[in-house]
């Protein structure tokens, strides 16, 4: 029996409450996450040419995306592009591949663009519309974002045949605000930035995840939550890591409640290592 199994059995949980895997069933609806999801829904419902969602590393953007995918209507054809990079034409290859379009990836740019345009028009004729969702979009270059803007030229008249949803880290928002991307920014209809959780939201987040797996929600003392918030900067992914380690420690010592002393033990042992990048971004 592993230490993880031990704490699940010890606390009577149906599964680990603080897993690092993005799971929409565990989604905690903080005010910021509700607003971000509303912006995503607004972008889809109003057929916004470009919708942009940004947030700190580990704040829950991927979980929101997965939740959105569960709600999309059957008349939407979705292409999900993760971590796309490269120069001119390569983004088109990512897009075509995500939509399941058979293509010659060594073909000319004009040929690839025509294939995408033909596919989008065919879907429209069949009563469907196409959404390209680009995750980790901060990795795109200025040229890549301009290429995406050109893809929206497929739209004509009052009908939006192709929509773009970009999700990424804070630097994506900074890129879009650059003067050379003003034409791109003008096509962004809806945008929202998800901040890190404040102390009250961290408390609600921890309680939500505990009760979701059959816990009481009071397995962490108020002082313990203070420390969790302070050392994770309110980043949900880091909250999960620190709380998971703390529950292992508590179960090993047969203690039903995680108090500040247990959090301090985990920190002192050095097994919880928040990244410098995450901590720095949370301070912005």
Automatic annotation (TrEMBL):
Domain AAA+ ATPase: 47-191
InterPro entries named among the record's database cross-references: AAA+_ATPase (IPR003593), AAA_22 (IPR049945), ExeA_AAA_ATPase_DNA-bind (IPR052026), P-loop_NTPase (IPR027417)
Cited Pfam families: AAA_22
GO MF term set: ATP hydrolysis activity
Signal peptide: none
Name this polypeptide is given: Type II secretion system protein A
């Amino acid at each position: 029996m592993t230490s993880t199994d031990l704490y699940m059995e010890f606390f009577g949980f149906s599964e680990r409450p603080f897993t690092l895997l993005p799971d929409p069933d565990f989604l905690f609806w903080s005010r910021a996450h509700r607003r971000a999801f509303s912006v995503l829904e607004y972008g889809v419902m109003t057929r916004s040419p470009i919708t942009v969602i940004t947030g700190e590393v580990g704040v829950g953007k991927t979980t929101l995306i997965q939740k959105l995918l569960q709600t999309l209507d059957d008349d939407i054809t979705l292409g999900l592009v993760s971590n796309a990079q490269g120069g001119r034409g390569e983004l088109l290859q990512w897009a075509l591949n995500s939509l399941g379009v058979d293509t010659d990836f060594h073909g000319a740019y004009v040929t690839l663009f025509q294939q995408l345009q033909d596919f989008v028009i065919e879907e429209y004729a069949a009563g469907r519309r196409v959404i390209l969702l680009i995750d980790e979009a901060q990795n795109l270059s200025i040229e890549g974002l301009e290429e995406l803007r050109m893809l929206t030229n497929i739209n004509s008249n009052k009908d939006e045949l192709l929509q773009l949803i970009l999700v990424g880290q804070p630097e994506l928002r900074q890129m879009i605000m650059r003067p050379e991307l003003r034409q791109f920014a003008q096509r962004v209809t809806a945008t929202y930035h998800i901040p890190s959780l404040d102390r009250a939201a961290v408390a609600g987040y921890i309680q939500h995840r505990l009760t979701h797996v059959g816990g009481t929600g009071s397995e962490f003392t108020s002082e313990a939550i203070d420390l969790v918030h302070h050392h994770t900067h309110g980043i949900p992914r880091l909250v999960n890591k620190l709380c998971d380690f703390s529950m292992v420690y508590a179960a090993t010592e047969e203690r039903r409640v995680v108090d500040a002393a247990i959090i301090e033990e985990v920190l002192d042992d050095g097994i919880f290592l928040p990244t410098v990048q995450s901590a720095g971004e949370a301070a912005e």
